[in-house]
Design brief:
CATH architecture of the largest domain: Alpha-Beta Complex
Shape: globular
Order of helices and strands: EEEEEEEEEEEHHEEHHEEEEHH
Bound molecules: FE2/S2 (inorganic) cluster, fe (ii) ion
Largest sheet: 7 strands, antiparallel
CATH class of the largest domain: Alpha Beta
Strand order of the largest sheet: 11-17-16-15-14-13-12
Structural class: alpha+beta
Length: 369
């Protein structure tokens, strides 16, 4: 894979997915990658999720290569030392555990079908948490993932780059508002015109009256540059869709995207239909992701782009994104702002209508698993 030339190889701070939840079943160890390092994620037999730096404090073996979970402990493949959920060595096969031998934990959160790990270039603890979507009554998330070249802020910029939806996705979106607040950006989208989605147009479905009558709303929330959560509501059909797209900078220029989709339908047949709807939405989004990836894999980030009228709030997002970089050498074309320091409780997203600030009048492969 061709690494993408970037203005910098510094990684942004924030939460990034390192696994899908169903890749870490009880008793399983999974090695994810984040910011140039492996992250070993495991779930104990009782279901406790842990993420640790991979190297054993005894003599440095990699726990993701031959390590195993035994009950509530993770066991190193080299000399068989066992480490408890708090990280400390609780047992060896031949003597007292070495004093102060402990694994280094990585802060981890599981939500909406994905496992997110915290990365901070200076090693600071998390100061905020990603927004989580409601899950009650929703189908189990169906996931998709793909690795390619790109830049860490490609995902959030893609959301508000209204000009690319026609040429790349054969569709359009009506961006209602974009509101940055601390480490979050809330983006409201008006879904009237959903029949214009390329998926429907190419099948002639865009002429269906029933599709044209659909009135829905979508609210997207960016939690840092790594996570875009969306909640789509079509009240007259009793349909809600929850989707999390998240992009992990694994190595310089190498990005891993994970997508988790779930649906809820409030009707007698809802429980039976929702999984099919969830899979359809996953299929459509996967297609869009591949279309974006063709561009991301081959483009060069322009630090001072020549923005056109109607482009969407690209520079607003770039200025906001600066807070996740340790220094101004991650030049995304914006003015550096002070790092975000607020703690925000994870809260469900409530779809809103036209709510105000920063309004816009312009109309959202490789190694995939
Ligand atoms: S290196 Fe892990 S037990 Fe020796
Ligand atoms: Fe796109």
């Amino acid at each position: 894979m061709k690494p993408m030339p970037t203005a910098t190889h510094r990684y942004p701070n924030g939460w990034f997915p390192v696994a899908c939840g169903d890749e870490v079943t009880p008793g399983r160890i999974f090695t994810g990658r984040l910011a140039g390092e492996d992250v070993v994620v495991y779930r104990t037999r009782r279901g406790r999720l842990r993420a640790v730096h991979p190297y054993c404090p005894h003599l440095g073996a990699h726990l993701g290569h031959g390590g195993r979970v035994e009950g509530e402990t993770i066991v190193c493949p080299f000399h068989g030392f066992s480490f408890g959920p708090a990280g400390n060595c609780v047992r060896t096969p031949y003597g007292q555990p070495p004093p102060r031998a402990s694994l280094t934990h990585v802060p981890v959160i599981e939500a909406n079908g994905l496992v997110f790990a915290w990365h901070h270039e200076s090693g600071s603890a998390p100061t905020w948490e990603p927004v989580t979507l409601p899950s009650e009554g929703f189908t189990k998330p169906t996931t998709f993932q793909i690795t390619s070249s790109g830049h860490p802020h490609d995902l959030v910029e893609n959301l508000i780059d209204v000009g690319h939806f026609g040429p790349v996705h054969n569709t359009k979106i009506n961006l209602v508002s974009t509101e940055p607040e601390g480490p979050f950006v809330r983006v409201a989208v008006d879904l009237s015109g959903v029949e214009e989605l390329g998926f429907f147009k190419e099948r002639g479905l865009h002429r269906l009256g029933s599709l044209k009558d659909i009135r829905g709303q979508a609210e997207f929330t960016c939690s840092g540059v790594g996570i875009v959560s969306s909640l789509v509501s079509v009240p007259e059909l009793g349909v809600q869709l929850a989707q999390v797209a998240a992009l992990t900078p694994e190595d310089p220029g190498r990005m891993h995207l994970r997508l988790a989709t779930s649906a809820r339908i409030e009707s007698r047949m809802g429980a039976a239909l929702a999984p099919a709807l969830s899979h359809l939405v996953r299929f459509i989004t996967k297609r869009q992701v591949k279309q974006d990836y063709e561009i991301w894999a081959n483009r060069r980030p322009i630090e001072r782009p020549k923005i056109a009228t109607g482009d969407g709030p690209i520079m607003l997002i770039r200025r906001w994104a600066q807070q996740f970089y340790e220094s101004a050498d991650a030049d995304l074309g914006g003015t550096p702002e002070r790092a975000g320091t607020r703690r925000a409780a994870a809260a469900p997203i409530t779809p809103t209508g036209s709510n105000g600030r920063a309004r816009h009048d312009a109309p959202a492969a490789r190694n995939e698993r």
